[in-house]
Design goal:
Helices cover about 30% and strands about 25% of the residues of chain A. Chain A is globular and about 70 Å long. With about 325 residues, chain A is of the alpha/beta class. In chain A, the strands form two sheets. An eight-stranded mixed β-sheet of chain A has the order 6-7-8-3-9-10-12-11, sandwiched between helices. In chain A, strands 2-1-4-5 form a four-stranded antiparallel β-sheet, with helices on one face. In chain A, a hairpin with a 5-residue loop joins strand 1 and strand 2. Chain A has a domain of about 200 residues: 3-Layer(aba) Sandwich (Rossmann fold). Chain A starts with 9 loop residues before the first strand and ends in a 7-residue tail after the last strand. Chain B starts with a strand and ends in a 14-residue tail after the last helix. Chain B has a single domain, classed as P-loop containing nucleotide triphosphate hydrolases (Rossmann fold, 3-Layer(aba) Sandwich). In chain B, the strands form two sheets. In chain B, strands 6-7-8-3-9-10 form a six-stranded mixed β-sheet, with helices on both faces. In chain B, strands 2-1-4-5 form a four-stranded antiparallel β-sheet, with helices on one face. Classes of the chains: A alpha/beta (about 325), B alpha/beta (about 270). Chains A and B meet through helix 8, helix 9, helix 10 and helix 11 of A and helix 7, helix 8, helix 9 and helix 10 of B.
C-alpha cells in the first residue's frame, strides 16, 4: 500500500483537546498541536505522563472518552478531514486505514478465542473477502510476524503466548487490512528489554516491508534512537520541540528536552566509574496541573534558562535549524 | 566484613499442572548463592521469567524455598517457623513496581505509613503518628499530604509513599522489585536519588531487581545476572558490562537501548 503521490498522509493543525469534569471545568490536555506524518515515516512522540500523548493518540482516531472534546483544529488524513467525517466514514478508516496498538497486550486480546480467529475477525469486519481468500490473507499476515511457527500461534489462546508474542498478535491485527498509518501507544511498556528490542525490530520491518507510517508514542527517549525518523516532544499538552531524531536527541534545543535527557542514567560506556551512585540530575518541581491557567510558557516554573518574556505569553514555534522546530523564547519564539 | 544476608544454594521448585496431574517440576530457582555486604546494593538483572521475583519473595520470607539456606542476623531464616519469622520480617521490607496496586486506596497516606507499626504494636498512638509524619517528610511528602488518599497522589508520590511504608519499621534490607520501572524518566531520577540518599543516611542495604541495565550500573555496587533460575554471572558493573562472559549477560547488554551512547547528549558521558 503506497501513497507515494502525496507529501503527508497525516496533517494535524492547531489541535486543541480538553477534558471536562462533571462541573464542566475544562482541563486542556492538548493545546495547539500541529505536526505532519509522511508516508512510511516513523514519528516518535516523546512525553511523560500527563503530557497528552495518549490523548493525542485517541483523538487522531476520534476515540476520545465522552468527557473529552476536540475544541479546535483539523486532522487531515489522506486529504480527508477526520473531524468532519461521519461515524460511518470513521468506521471505514479505523482499523483499516489507521490502526491503533494499545498499551496492554493482555487486555486487548479476547481470552477464550484463538488468536488466528481474532486476527481474522479484523479482516472480516473490514474487507469484503470470501472465506478462502480471507484465510489466505490471514496466513500471509501471520507468516510475516511468526515465520517459524505460523500454525502453532494461529491456533493458540492468548494465555499460551509470551508478552512479546501477544504484542506481535496485536501488530498482526493492526496491519491485517494494510493500513497506511499505525499508531502505537507505549507498545513496549512492561516488557523486558530483550522483548522490547524484538518488538521494535518488528516495527522497523513493517515500515520497510509495507511502507506503513508509524506514530510511536513513548516516555523512553532511548527507544527512539536508531528507529524513529523524527521526534516530537510533548510537555503539558504542547509541542515543545520537533525535528529529526538525531538533532532532537543529540542537539536538543528546548530546555525541557535537555533536562529530560540528563535525567537518564549514564549509558553503559564503562567510563562512569567515578559517577556511580552519585545523584542523577533532576528537573526541579512537578509537571503543571492541566486545569491551571498561566499566561507564559508551561515549562517556565521549572526551567533553568527562564528570563523575562517567558512569563508574559506562550512562545511560538521557530525553526533555528533545518526541519528542527522549537517553541522557546531563547530562539526567538 | 560479615555480609548482612547470605544465600546458600537456594532452590525453589514449583509444580506445574493441577490436582493429581502435578508431575512436572519447574525449577524457578536453582542453586542460587550470593551475599550482600551491609550498606551496599546488589542489582539483580535478567529477563522476565528468570526467577528474580521468586528470589525476592523467598528473601522476604513470603515463599518457602524448597531447599537451601538464607543466613540473616546469624540465623537461617529459611528454616524458621511462622512465629519466629514475626521478628525477622520487619527487618526485610519490599517495594513493588506498581504502588497504585500495592497500597490500600481507602487508607490515608499517614495510615499507610503507620500501619506496620500498628500491626507490630510497638508504640502508643501519638508516638506512631509523629514517626509517620517524620517519615513522610523524609521521603519528600509534606505534612498537608498526610490526610490524602492514594488516588490523589501522582505516580512518583505514590512510590515515595511505598518507600516510606517500607522504612517504617526501620528495616536493614530493602528489596526493590522493579521499583523504578513504571516511572517516567524525570520521576525515576528523583526516586533513584531519594533511595541513594536514604541508603547513606540509614545505612540501608538494597537488593535492586530490575531489567534496566543502565540504571543497575548506576545504582548498584554489584550486579548479578539471572538466567533460568540461576545466577550466571556476578561482578562489579564496570567489569561485568565491560567484558560480559555469559551469553545471558551479552544478550542483556545488546538489548539495552544503550545506542544512546553514540549520541552526544549534553551532560552524559
Amino acid at each position: 500500500m503506497t501513497t507515494g503521490d502525496i507529501e503527508f498522509i497525516l496533517e494535524v493543525r492547531n489541535l486543541h483537546v480538553a477534558y471536562f469534569s462533571r462541573a464542566r471545568v475544562a482541563s486542556s490536555a492538548v493545546v495547539d498541536v500541529s505536526f505532519d506524518v509522511r508516508p512510511g515515516e516513523i514519528l516518535g512522540v516523546l512525553g511523560e505522563s500527563g503530557s497528552g500523548k495518549s490523548t493525542l493518540a485517541t483523538c487522531l482516531l476520534r476515540l476520545l472518552p465522552a468527557n473529552g472534546e476536540i475544541q479546535q483544529g483539523s486532522i487531515l488524513f489522506e486529504g480527508r478531514d477526520l473531524l468532519q467525517a461521519t461515524p460511518r466514514e470513521l468506521e471505514s478508516i479505523r482499523g483499516r486505514r489507521i490502526a491503533l496498538i494499545n498499551q496492554e497486550p493482555w487486555v486487548a486480546l479476547h481470552p477464550t478465542m484463538r488468536v488466528g480467529d481474532q486476527v481474522g475477525e479484523v479482516l472480516a469486519a473490514h474487507e469484503y473477502l470470501d472465506k478462502k481468500s480471507r484465510r489466505e490473507r490471514l496466513r500471509q499476515v501471520l507468516e510475516g510476524l511468526f515465520p517459524a511457527e505460523t500454525n502453532r500461534i494461529s491456533f493458540s489462546y492468548p494465555h499460551q503466548l509470551s508478552g512479546g508474542q501477544r504484542q506481535r498478535v496485536l501488530i498482526a491485527q493492526a496491519i491485517a487490512c494494510g493500513p497506511s498509518l499505525v499508531i502505537a501507544d507505549e507498545p513496549t511498556a512492561s516488557v523486558d528489554s530483550a522483548t522490547q528490542r524484538e518488538i521494535l525490530t518488528v516495527f522497523e520491518s513493517l515500515r520497510r516491508g509495507f511502507g506503513v507510517a508509524i506514530i510511536l508514542i513513548t516516555h523512553n527517549p532511548s527507544l527512539l534512537v536508531g528507529l524513529a525518523d523524527r521526534v516530537l516532544v510533548l510537555y503539558a499538552g504542547r509541542v515543545v520541540e520537533i525535528g529529526p531524531t538525531e538533532s532532537v536527541l543529540s542537539h536538543s534545543l528546548h530546555p525541557y528536552t535537555q533536562a529530560l535527557l540528563r535525567c537518564l542514567p549514564p549509558p553503559l560506556c564503562g567510563a562512569n566509574v567515578v559517577n556511580r551512585k552519585t545523584k542523577l540530575p533532576v528537573i526541579a518541581g512537578d509537571a503543571p496541573k492541566l486545569n491551571t491557567l498561566s499566561l507564559g510558557c508551561r515549562f517556565e516554573p521549572r526551567c533553568e534558562d527562564r528570563f523575562e518574556p517567558c512569563r508574559t505569553r506562550e512562545p511560538l514555534p521557530v525553526s533555528p535549524a533545518d526541519e528542527h522546530v522549537v517553541s522557546c523564547f531563547k530562539f526567538g519564539g | 566484613m560479615q555480609p548482612l544476608i547470605q544465600v546458600e544454594s537456594l532452590r525453589k521448585h514449583y509444580r506445574d499442572g493441577k490436582g493429581l496431574d502435578s508431575g512436572h517440576v519447574v525449577p524457578a530457582l536453582d542453586e542460587v548463592s550470593f551475599a550482600i555486604a551491609p550498606g551496599s546494593t546488589l542489582a539483580l538483572v535478567g529477563e522476565s521469567g528468570s526467577g528474580k521475583s521468586t528470589l525476592a519473595l523467598c528473601l522476604a520470607c513470603l515463599e518457602r524455598p524448597t531447599s537451601g539456606r538464607i543466613w540473616f542476623g546469624g540465623r537461617n531464616i529459611a528454616a524458621l517457623c511462622e512465629k519466629q519469622l514475626r521478628a525477622v520480617r520487619p527487618q526485610i521490607q519490599l517495594v513493588f513496581q506498581d504502588p497504585a496496586s500495592s497500597l490500600n486506596p481507602r487508607f490515608t497516606a499517614l495510615e499507610i505509613v503507620t500501619e506496620p507499626l500498628v500491626l507490630q504494636r510497638i508504640w502508643k498512638r501519638r508516638q506512631t503518628r509523629e514517626w509517620g509524619v517524620a517519615l513522610l517528610e523524609r521521603v519528600g511528602l509534606s505534612m498537608e499530604m498526610a490526610g490524602r488518599r492514594v488516588g490523589e497522589f501522582s505516580g512518583g508520590q505514590r512510590q515515595r509513599l511505598a518507600i516510606a511504608r517500607a522504612l517504617s519499621l526501620e528495616p536493614k534490607l530493602l528489596i526493590l522489585d522493579e521499583a523504578l520501572s513504571a516511572l517516567d524518566c524525570s520521576v525515576q531520577a528523583k526516586i533513584a536519588n531519594l533511595l541513594l540518599e536514604l541508603q547513606s543516611s540509614f545505612a540501608l542495604t538494597y537488593l535492586f531487581i530490575t531489567h534496566d541495565l543502565a540504571m543497575a550500573a548506576h545504582f548498584a555496587d554489584e550486579i548479578a545476572v539471572m538466567d533460568r533460575g540461576r545466577i550466571v554471572e556476578q561482578g562489579i558493573p564496570e567489569k561485568l558490562l565491560g567484558s560480559p562472559q555469559h551469553e545471558a549477560t551479552r544478550c542483556l547488554v545488546a538489548a539495552t537501548p544503550g545506542s544512546i551512547v553514540t549520541l552526544n547528549i549534553p551532560g552524559v558521558c
